[in-house]
Design a protein that fits this description.
Length: about 130
């Protein structure tokens, strides 16, 4: 059982415009466990409970109504071999996490750093423990 490094692209990165790596998969799975997302074919369905939870970040279902982009997709994570959240919602969620200073981008890299505020918030909101 190899111990996962707490940094690097396998740990936390962008995948196009959404969050990926160990942390991206962990967040997606925690959202499923809390009943915010439900796997369906190649997408995730957002539950009413999920929209209520997302609203605390200013992410409202109405914002996506006129979008031609897919709301959600299951994107297979190359390092974890499990899906993370992609699609319009995945992109907006990453943007909100960056705006709230939970995450920081590294210049000239896809790697993402999780701030102490981000670790605390993910723990409080999803029960995710990151050292």
């Amino acid at each position: 059982n190899k111990k996962l490094a707490k940094t690097g692209v396998k740990y936390c990165r962008t995948c196009y415009d959404h969050l990926a790596g160990y942390v991206g998969v962990l967040i997606t799975e925690a959202m499923e466990e809390q009943g915010y997302l439900i796997k369906s074919e190649k997408i995730y369905l957002v539950t009413q409970k999920g929209w209520e939870w997302l609203s605390q970040f200013g992410i409202l279902e109405a914002h996506f109504k006129k979008s031609r982009r897919a709301l959600t997709r299951q994107c297979l994570d190359w390092s974890e071999r499990r899906p993370h959240l992609a699609g319009h919602l995945g992109a907006v969620l990453l943007d909100k996490m960056l705006e709230n200073n939970w995450l920081k981008k590294i210049k000239f890299s896809r790697e993402i750093i999780i701030t102490s505020k981000g670790k605390q918030s993910l723990n409080n909101l999803l029960g995710i423990v990151l050292n």
